[in-house]
Amino acid sequence: MTVNSPPGLAQLLGDLAIDLQHESGxxxxxxxxxxxxxxxxxxxWGCGISMVQxxxxxxxxxxxxxxxxLDQLQSSLDEGPCLSALREQRTVQLEDxxxxxxxxxxxxxxxxxxVRSMLSFQLFVIDDTLGALNLFGDHSExxxxxxxxxxxxxxxxxxxxxxxxxxxxxxxxALASRDIIGQAKGLLMHRENLTGLQxxxxxxxxSQNANIKLVEIARWVVEQHESRLNRT
Length: 232
Description:
Elements: H1 9-21, H2 25-40, E1 46-53, E2 56-60, H3 65-77, H4 81-87, E3 91-94, H5 104-112, E4 117-122, E5 130-137, H6 145-163, H7 179-192, H8 196-210, H9 214-231
Helix pairs in contact: 1-8, 2-6, 2-8, 3-5, 7-8, 7-9, 8-9
């Protein structure tokens, strides 16, 4: 499928690249990932990243106040899918808060705030700190297999961003299943003078603003590059 170039898309890419060069790399990337997840992951109404030390949960880059509040509630209640993703499993899916029995107090609190389902991905361990990428749905059974795939890719990028620049050399491994995104990332790094993390954040933000899927944005970048080569 060829992406039709929407009006101003090239300018949008350039403007966002300039903005990213002036932002704090890790913080800006995490915010782009959580905001992008709401657009890119089927069923996602809200998203946040939880940093956990011991029994304390600290919300990072929440997309709205309800997300931050629910992350903090998991800390005070000492229960919830985020904590289970960190302590027991890599990925935890909660299909319906109304029938959930694993975390009854958290489920009731989530229902009171209009959240019906949830998906949590364990992030890499950093010293004594753990992390989780949390996706929230406003209806039951909001997340499907595509949600798991796209959310997993975003979780990998969040992990790398949290580890910092030392892990950036391994950035491409997170995109092994998305070769076209990896190609586009490399082209943007070279063309716009961005780091790998900034290039990914650029594509996520462009996907949001242009209302085009991330993989189609990547395909458009590659096609534009190949078209220029063919004209020379």
